[in-house]
Amino acid sequence: MAKYVDGFVIKVKKKNMPAYKKMAKLGKKIWLEYGALDYYECAADEFVPWGQGFPKMCNLKKDETILFSFIVYKSKAHRNKVNEKVHADPRMNLDNYDMPFDPKGFALAGFNVLMSK
After folding, report:
1. What Gene3D superfamilies would the database entry show (predicted)?
2. Which tens digit of pLDDT belongs to each residue from 2-30?
3. Which of the chain's ends, N or C, has fewer CB atoms near its CB within 10 Å?
């Protein structure tokens, strides 16, 4: 069965990483609780000098880092069902949190998986 992935690129101030990790831990719990197959949060470790590069693409400042995050689902329909439950969960009410990143430094897209293991 083909899988589907929601992928995120997020700019976060380095000083906000502890708050981001706390938020991501809750997000992981909720998405997996509602049926996501897997959940990843990856912090940039190395920026290569060729290509456009994430720092340029994201207009990265010295006090920021980039996260690449993704959630894996069985299919797009499965993603839609899971996300409907996630977004209805009161733990996801953003009014309850100080966001550890600026939403203007956030990109999201849904992806069909072309190949995997």
Report:
1. 3.30.70.100
2. 799 999 999 999 999 999 999 999 999 99
3. C
